[in-house]
Amino acid sequence: MKTNRLILSLQLIFTLAVCAFMVLPVIMSALAGITVNYFIGLESGLTLRWIVEVWEGYGDTIFRSIGISLACLALTLVLGVPAAYVLARHQNRITRVFEEMLMLPVAVPGLATALALISVFGGMGGFRTSWLFILVGHVLFTLPFMVRAVLSVLLALDLRTLEEGAKSLGASFLQRFFHVILPNCRDGILAGALMVLTLSIGEFNLTWLLHTPHTKTLPVGLADAYASMRLEVGSAYTLIFFLMIVPLLLAMQALARPRRRKFIADDEPAHDLVLLKS
Amino acid sequence: MTLPASKPIAIQLKNCAKTFPDGTRVLDALDLEIVPGETLVLLGPSGCGKTTTLRLIAGLEQPDQGGQVLFDGQDVTQLGIEKRNVGMVFQSYALFPNMTVAENVGYGLRIQKMPADRQRQRVAEMLSMMRLTPLANRHIDQLSGGQRQRVALARALAVRPRALLLDEPLTALDAQLRDALRMEINLLLRQLGITAIYVTHDQAEAMALGDRVVVMSQGKIAQIGSPRDIYHQPRNAFVADFIGTMNRVAGTMTPAGLVCEAGRLRVDMASLKAGEILFRPEDVQVVEGDLEPDLTGTIAASFFLGDRTRLLVDIGQQRPLVVERFARCSLQVGQRIGMTVNPSGLLAV
């Protein structure tokens, strides 16, 4: 009995230690963002000054990041959902190769993808210096996450029979797509959408190479702040990033939770069946 | 109950063959005529082409070059299912999980852009006809198999289709429910008077539902006829063996009949080419008293089935005879018995 309790306490201590190891830097960093002077410590007092400073110096990066992530979401929806549908409807060698190729930008280091984009499109001045250039990189990187999420839901449905059912009732292709297919892969679309938003807002590797001084995004700005400003400013910046990303992560968790238990009716016993009356 | 307003149609398949893209020929060129208002059952083992035939009629498949599908004489071969106005019930029901029962039933009407109040009225009508009214707002995943089946039927019938096509609609259900729903569907089809094509591999279902039954085997029609014809006058060995239980006795033809080790069957020689006679278990009587038997044999096995006892009787042939006794049966395994066979039940295929 005694050894049991000892083991249990040790396990608890270990777990708490690991948690502390991971959570402490987060807390410290958040605190640093609202401390008057981090090198003196909390006794120097709390302030919102650094947050205001970030807002004034880097406000545009926050809005640019939100804008790019929303545009990226829109593009991945328009490109990814139909792509997932085609992949689900035609499972063969060609579509499997295509699926693998879609995954490539995730496997290849962002650096390489970015260099490839620059070497091909770098000469197109207007495009190279606009935020659209970053958007292209983000879409390349996030598209497979949308496709995968939707595809897994579609493959779990008996898509062909569902479509034939709708067809037999007179539905055209577009009607089938919007009335039956889209609503039934809603969960996949939602999960994919949150994934795309989160990845796009936090993307650094690609963006670091693709940005120009006028197209900084939040993570790029953050690196910039840590490199060239007071530690408190960088920390305040991180705090803002947290505030943006945590709700997204929570929403993702909520969606990943097992679905509510379905109420399933028993079949009525045969003797209860009343024959049809005219 | 309001019946579908459209007049039942005749359906004709002319020279319809089907080869899949990989080269497999699933259906040999076949001709089939379906009379307005009849229930035609396509019956056969899996892979016999029955579902393909149904899909050709539905418009979910196109026949090979030269094949034609006619609805009331009008060529619909080139029309997809969405243009044919047929109601279809799928084996897996194909109900839309994102919609309620009422929305599923009303989907065809919504596609037809029927005014909302008439849609509601028609859906209510269909729900009450299929006894689904209390379930109207349930989602599909909250229904039992039998309920889903009824929703699928209601959905297919709501649009007043020109014909109703059913692809093994009862296969996914358990035996008891299947019996009850079979009766229900039968009654429904009679009341609606709609042209219906029903695919099944279950011969009891085919017998109970079909005005006519098409027995199919390996992409060909083996026989078309009323359930009675198919059962009592099988035209070939496949049909004889596929439908019900059939006894076979081989022997030598003599003027007195077919003679074998176990005795003699009195048959008219003219009707017989091969030296083999077929008959059903129910045409065999176990002889009691002094009556002279046609065949004698030894009981090899006995199975008590509740309402009857099934005996396997060894008569020195390849396969034992199957004999059924409905009375309380005190016969023992190993006992020798005499049997007579009802002469009108004797078949030569």
Notes on the protein architecture:
- The complex is a heterodimer of chains A (278) and B (349).
- Chain A is 76% helix and 0% strand.
- With 278 residues, chain A is mainly α.
- The longest helix of chain A has 41 residues, at 49-89.
- Mean pLDDT of chain A is 83; it is low at 268-278.
- Chain B folds into 2 domains: 11-242, 3-Layer(aba) Sandwich (Rossmann fold), CATH 3.40.50.300; 247-345, Nucleic acid-binding proteins (OB fold (Dihydrolipoamide Acetyltransferase, E2P), Beta Barrel).
- In chain B, β9 (212-217) and β10 (220-225) form a beta hairpin.
- In chain B, α3 packs parallel to α5 and α4 crosses α5 (145-158).
- Chain A binds chain B through residues 157-158, 161-162, 164-172, 175, 179-180, 183-184, 186, 262-270, 273-278, and chain B through 1, 58, 60, 80-83, 85-88, 90, 92-98, 107-108, 111-112, 129, 131, 141-147, 155-156, 159, 173-174, 176-177, 179-181, 183-184, 187-188, 191.
Number of strands of chain A: 0
Across the major sheet of chain B, the strand order is 6-7-8-3-9-10
SS class of chain A: mainly alpha
The pair of chains with the biggest contact is: A-B, 34 and 47 residues
Biggest sheet of chain A: strands, sense, closure?
Answer: none
- The gross shape of chain A turns out to be globular
Query: Count the strands of chain B?
Result: 20
Span from first to last CA of chain A?
Answer: 74 Å
First CA to last CA of chain B: what distance? 46 Å
Task: Write out the CATH superfamily name of chain A.
Answer: MetI-like
Q: What's this, in brief?
A:
The complex is a heterodimer of chains A (278) and B (349). Chain A is an all-alpha fold.
Key phrases:
heterodimer; A: 278 residues; mainly alpha; 12 helices; 0% strand; disordered C terminus; B: 349 residues; alpha+beta; Rossmann fold; OB fold (Dihydrolipoamide Acetyltransferase, E2P); six-stranded mixed β-sheet; five-stranded antiparallel β-sheet; elongated
